[in-house]
Write a structure and sequence with these properties.
The complex is a heterodimer of chains A (about 290) and B (about 350). Chain A is mainly beta. Chain A has one domain: OPCA outer membrane adhesin/invasin (Lipocalin, Beta Barrel), CATH 2.40.128.100. In chain A, about 10% of the residues lie in helices and about 60% in strands. Chain A contains 3 helices and 11 strands; from the N terminus they run H-E-E-E-E-E-E-E-H-E-E-E-E-H. The N and C termini of chain A lie far apart (about 45 Å). About 0% of the residues of chain A have low confidence. By secondary structure, chain B is an alpha/beta fold. Chain B has a domain of about 210 residues: Alpha-Beta Complex (2-enoyl-CoA Hydratase, Chain A, domain 1). Helices cover about 30% and strands about 20% of the residues of chain B. Chain B contains 11 helices and 12 strands. Chain B has a 7-stranded mixed beta sheet, with helices on both faces. In chain B, helix 9 links the parallel strand 8 and strand 9. The mean pLDDT of chain B is about 95. The chains are: A mainly beta (about 290), B alpha/beta (about 350). Chains A and B meet through helix 1, helix 2 and strand 10 of A and helix 1, helix 2, strand 10 and strand 11 of B.
């Protein structure tokens, strides 16, 4: 167990060092400064949620998952041909019921993820790109089960570091340019909040803050996101159709939490540039983060 | 980079072992629902040792009566009987058609008559704020009745109430038949009767499924209500068996204050903070999960003894007198003369 923990600690350190080093690096190219449009996309998601939080109830609930999100991806200022970064923000709401259908649980969370990936273009075929790198993610919110007494709610606060990767294929369906993408995000380690088994939030309110923050790693929590999307480019506008699967699970203080969602994603966006007139006139080199 | 890839590969091989943990699942049939109820209580209930309940033996005795043909109501009654073995007013099985209960106060004299107070002491002339009925009585003692700790108490309301009652010679706080509510309201109300940080008791919680897996007791204190109107004259708190849960907690804390006397009957108890679980068929189960001691360090699950034990008499009631309230006046009078 200690070997694994040491490994994770080294990995997290390496990830941090890598991200900081890359962020601190300066472009060596003294030539023309390229334009780096932001691929922005507003999304709405709906699908199925399966939620278990044994602090609230030993029974798994099922119901509707919803999310409103915004994703922005852009080539980095340094070495823009090879590096790209992504910001993903979302607000999630799950409306679920117990199998008997007489109790309701609400879950409202926000999430924010920032990642940076190395980019390999033209892998196998000219339109295929692969990206891999690290990401950091924050999730916060709460689950609420109106049926309960002193365990009526369960807070969610989680910050993590991990890996993310993309496989992107820019192609055409007949004459329509399409970007097909698979993205996986795999948090590895972090910190998260959990009360102790049967510890009431009233006790926390009274001032007992012992054992509320936990180091998260694959031994006590596992999170993953799989995302597949097709962005249809209609002139300057892109329409997104996709699917997102999220898994968030933890096992700490004898409390079992598991949340799995499967959602259909639709979105609208495009590539946006924020440049001065002079810069636009001088620059002919545009580096798209994902669409080229 | 090579090292990083190495670590990554090792971690990826561990991925299938990641934290997914099996959750017990029960069938939605008579045995499944019975087993779910028994196991939820077994893993979460906090007073097995204190009450010396052999829960395994209870299971054997009651599970033998379950059969596949048992009706929903019969199963409910059987489960209710099993839960009564816990002698716990906070333990209820809740279905669409009934709520099981172990309400000890149903077996004792009521010791409270709201109409009698309203008619013969308040003369139907009282004020009401934050769920508190209050007035200065003819004998210049203040009376306030708080019937539900679930009724939110506003600091502004309490300022108005205690300003109004400030000219009285003593105060009677009547919490008879108050079945409890929010502990935060206990803190808000007690804060008007203390002038310094005051030890209120300790709280524990279960840390695992074993019957004796508990956290260390966490001592907690109440702060005086700063820059608010306080009441510093003698106080009598009236209690009965219906003073349960948060009210029981309020009485246990007030009892520890120097200027306060508890009069009436033993309170109904209920010192375990309740949690709720549920069964596959949708029935809810509420149970005591976190024990709270009073300032004397004792659990008050079976009630708080009053300083002066008095029951209402039929003869007094017939004459429009509340025996317990009259005793409170006597005590306040004696404190004033002393």
């Amino acid at each position: 167990m200690r070997i694994i923990e040491t490994g994770i600690r080294r990995l997290v350190t390496a990830l941090l060092v890598m991200m900081l080093a890359v962020a601190a690096a300066k472009a060596h190219d003294a030539g023309e400064k390229p334009l780096r449009p932001v691929a922005g996309m507003f999304t709405a998601e709906v699908g199925h949620a399966s939620v278990l939080d044994s602090y609230l109830t030993p029974i798994a609930y099922g119901g509707t998952a919803m999310r409103l999100g915004y994703e922005a991806q852009q080539a980095t200022g340094f070495n823009p041909e090879r590096w790209t970064r992504q910001l993903d923000l979302g607000i999630n709401y799950n409306y679920t019921h117990n199998p008997a259908g007489n109790h309701t649980m609400h879950a409202l969370t926000i999430d924010a993820r920032w990642g940076m990936m190395h980019r390999w273009r033209g892998v196998l075929t000219p339109g295929l790109q692969l990206m891999a790198g690290g990401s950091t993610q924050f999730t916060g919110g709460a689950l609420y089960n109106a049926n309960n007494s002193n365990n009526v709610a369960s807070a969610r606060v989680h910050w993590s570091l991990g890996f993310m990767g993309q496989a992107v294929l820019n192609t055409r369906i007949k004459r329509l340019p399409v970007t097909i993408r698979y993205q996986a995000t795999l948090p590895v380690a972090g910190v998260f909040f959990s009360p102790e088994y049967d510890e009431a939030y009233y006790e926390i309110y009274l001032g007992n803050h012992r054992n509320l923050v936990h180091m998260g790693w694959w031994g006590n929590r596992f999170d993953m996101e799989n995302f597949v999307a097709a962005d249809l480019h209609l002139g300057g506008t892109s329409l997104r159709v996709g699917y997102r699967n999220r898994i968030a699970s933890s096992w700490v203080s004898n409390i079992n939490c598991r949340e799995v969602t499967h959602c259909v994603v639709i979105g609208i966006g495009g590539e946006f540039l924020s440049v001065g007139r002079k810069q636009r006139a001088e620059s002919s080199n545009i580096i798209s983060s994902i669409y080229q | 980079m090579k090292k990083l890839l190495h670590i990554l590969l090792i971690l990826l091989t561990l991925l299938p072992l990641a934290s997914c943990h099996d959750q017990p699942e029960w069938k939605n049939d008579p045995y499944g629902n019975f087993d779910a109820l028994w196991q939820i209580i077994d893993e979460h209930y906090c007073f097995f040792a204190y009450k010396d309940v052999d829960w395994q033996e209870v299971r054997l005795r009651y599970r033998a009566k379950v059969h596949n043909g048992i009706t929903s109501r019969e199963l409910f009654d059987l489960c209710s009987e099993m839960l009564k073995e816990l002698q716990d007013g906070h333990t209820n099985l809740i279905s669409a058609f009934d709520v099981s209960r172990y309400w000890i106060w149903e077996q004792y004299p009521v010791n409270y008559d709201e109409r009698l107070i309203d008619e013969h002491y308040l003369h139907f002339n009282y004020r009401r704020a934050s769920g508190i009925k209050y007035q200065v009585l003819d004998n210049n003692y203040a009376y306030m009745y708080y019937g539900d700790f679930a009724s939110g108490i506003g600091d502004g309301n309490l300022d108005v109430i205690f300003s109004q009652l400030a000219s009285s010679d003593g105060l009677v706080i009547d919490v008879r038949s108050n079945g409890g509510g929010y502990l935060t309201n206990v803190e808000t109300l007690v804060g008007r009767f203390i002038d310094e940080r005051t030890y209120a008791g300790s709280i524990q919680h279960k840390t695992g499924t074993g019957h004796n897996e508990f956290s260390n007791p966490y001592d907690y204190y109440f702060e005086p209500a700063h820059n608010r109107v306080h009441y510093n004259k003698p106080v009598v708190v009236l209690a009965n068996r219906g003073s349960f849960s948060a009210t029981n907690n309020f009485v246990s804390i007030m009892k520890s204050l120097p200027n306060v006397t508890i009069v009436g009957d033993v309170t109904g108890g209920g010192c375990g903070l309740p949690f709720t679980g549920e069964l596959p068929n949708g029935w809810s189960i509420r149970f005591s999960a976190a024990p709270i001691t009073g300032p004397d360090g004792e659990l008050t699950e079976f009630g708080v003894e009053p300083d002066v034990k008095v029951n209402m008499t039929e003869a007094d009631v017939a004459q429009g007198r509340d025996t317990i309230l009259e005793k409170a006046f006597e005590i306040l009078k004696s404190k004033r003369t002393n």
